[in-house]
Amino acid sequence: MAISSFVDGVKKALGQGPETVAPAAATPPPSASDFVDTAPSWAELQKMLEDKQQQLGWRPENPETGPANSGSLKRTFGSDAPPRVKLYRDSAAWCPYCQKVWLQLEEKQIPYTIEKINMRCYGDKPQEYTAKVPSGLLPAMELDGELIIESADVMAALEYAFPDKPLMPAKGTPAHARATALMKLERRLFGAWLQWLCYPRNNENNKKGFLSTMGAVEKELGADPSGPFFMGAKVTLVDCVFAPFLERIVASIAYYKGMYVRGEGRFPNLEAWFEGMEKRSSYLGSRSDFYTHCHDLPPQLGGCCQIPEGEPVSAAVDGEDGRSWHLPLPPLHATSLPEPYSPGEQPERDRLQAAAKLIGNHEAVTRFAARGCGEMGTRAFTAELSDPYAKPGMQHLGSVDAGLRLVAHALLAGAGGLPSVDGQVHLQTAADSSGHHSSADGPATLLAAAYMRDRVGVPRDLPLPAARQFRAHLNWLIDSLS
Ligand SMILES: N[C@@H](CCC(=O)N[C@@H](CS)C(=O)NCC(=O)O)C(=O)O
Fold this sequence. Notes:
Helix 7 (203-221) packs across helix 9. The chain starts with a helix and ends with a helix. It is built from 17 helices and 9 strands. By secondary structure, it is of the alpha+beta class. It is globular. The site of glutathione has 17 residues, from helix 1, helix 3 and helix 5.
């Protein structure tokens, strides 16, 4: 197994290698009926989408100038000048070190271009990248054409080259000394988190070590009453450095250890910090969700160790509790469990956002989902959700396309607005066909829908509220076919 330097850092800190388990992807139900393709065409869906967008007054934002987002390859913040910065970050938006730099660029509104490179666990890296960065590590940055690696050096270079909107206090001041000490505390927290997360032995001691370091973080967050950030009322580089790890901590400690770091009021200053961060475009656009993290950490870390207390949480996070990924979705808010999210949800707008993404990219999404009824790739990567060389089941493309049009229609109309019998939504099955519509392959569509559902990544594909809607509507299709 290729072990990234994310883990080499852990091994160095702990003097040992992790032992563990990776979570298994949910398996689809075994059988499904064929169905009649009664869904609107993509052109009709596009028209419905536009009508609905007008009705709700919501349109997708401009990726270059709008709020931070994971899809954009260029961020100008409205500037016409050619960007001086090029950021190389991972294509799945899983890398915490890339997220730190991403946050800094967004907070400082430095125009930049982005090139996405796979992490080793996710796929191959282009030779042009390894020729430039022989270690293959991410992130890397070109500043006026000069290559800089190591996130700490990248961040320092950005502060130096772009002194407007400084995110670090001036050197030699007590505030600078405090910021530097807080950055060290972040590395301590990183070590204590991984010691508990990745190693099955000495559970109680490791838990104690983690909680005591979290206690130190909580205390620091309360040190400046103007809060809610580490250095007071304003976001600084310290917040950018802590954010990727704090969000991974909250997700993984709930999933693998069954402890809610956030949502139950255990660390009130931390809750306030998250609420502060979740008001910022930089953070909202780059933050991930529990499902994505709990599946992206094991391949990066060599595994995570689950204890029995984590099992109910992991069932809910993976949508295996029969509830959390099914309609009607449980509410999402600042203290919702398992996953708190302070900006909350706007279900109609979130469904529209998911529909817009699906309709706008339907050809690529259909081919991707059809991998679920195609062939696995000849080369496997350690991230179980990645299979870059998988082949779509080409003979099933029409059926998968029909299934995804039903999902898009349900997202736009509300699944409850679709044909129903006895209060239950039923797809018209092939046996009911009057011959006007073509018949679609139920089992293949079901496999494709489940494959897609398990691979919706946040923030790569959609923000959390829209991703939940997409997953739940794919399950609506699966349940309707089953
Ligand atoms: N010390 C480095 C660590 C960066 C790091 O560990 N990056 C990981 C991803 S999180 C990586 O690129 N690993 C190689 C890979 O997965 O391809 C930094 O701060 O930039």
